[in-house]
Amino acid sequence: MFARLSRRRLLRQSALALGASVLPGAPAQGGQFTGKIRKSLKWSMVAEAGNLPLAESFKKLRECGFEGVEPSLSHVPDDRVDDWLAASKASGLIIDGTVGGRAATLESGVDLTRKLGGDSMLVVMSYDQKAPLKPQWNAARDRLKEAAPHAQNQGVKILVENVWTTFLISPFDMARFIDEVGSPWVAVHLDIGNQMRWGVAEHWVEVLGERSQKLDVKEYDLNKAMSEGMRKGFDTPIGEGSINWPAVRAELAKIQFTGWAAAEVKGGGWDYLADVARRMDRVLDLA
To answer: What's the predicted TM-score (pTM) here?
Structure first.
């Protein structure tokens, strides 16, 4: 979209834009990641979901500025799949993926994601801090290896998230773990805020590189975490905490990241969700 336009194509597009004024060779308007990153959000954030039919809620999310939504597997029982598909078709809101895969349910979660039209399932690997680490590492790795062929057959990527279980708390740990699984169908759903407890957001982007297939977007304030408690660090609007978003964008640009970024913050009403979408525009330079 940033390529130079021929004069003929430019004139044709200008006519279609009802006389919009664009100089030949001028770059398209927008931010650094306009047309490269698409905004989604977790369905659990939609506080008003129970007050409207599903299709109307989806339309509201489109009006808020989102292109996609990611439900948890538990949000969509088998007898409601058609309802979700119909709501997506009526609204244009894409179900880009699902959340909540666990080791015991990888194949069934992949199957549900495929039915919904999603291309990824976010997975959290369990970790018992009181048990030895190496056997848990090996078991988790082998379980993902086992599920990878099924994920490939269904066209759904299994994306491991970095979470606060204290398992895979360094980008080098995550990179090694994914590499040991050794399948392009098992990669990373990178949460930009979660790693701030132990590290630096842009360094995770740098080290993981193309292993990061999708993003979760939230904020984290280190000062608040230190003074009020670790989880209080998340009680900060996107763009107003300790994350160095320009540096994150710089690293995303280096790996030529394209794809979905999902808001994962506290829930709220439609005005609040629209503000979340605008904040994502600013920190990801989407507008």
So the answer is: 0.89
Residue 222 belongs to a domain? yes
pLDDT single digits (tens) 181-221: 999 999 999 999 998 988 999 999 999 999 999 999 999 99
Domain span at residue 87 reads 33-284
4 domain-assigned:
no
- Residue 65 belongs to a domain with what CATH number? 3.20.20.150
Q: Kindly give the parts of the chain with pLDDT less than 50.
A: 1-27
Rounded CA-CA distance 157/263 in Å is 19
Domain count, the chain: 1
At residue 257, what is the residue type?
F
| Other C-beta atoms lying within 10 Å of the C-beta of residue 215 | 24
Could you tell me the CA-to-CA distances from 160 to 15, 82, 124, 138, 185 in Å, in that order? 47, 27, 6, 15, 11
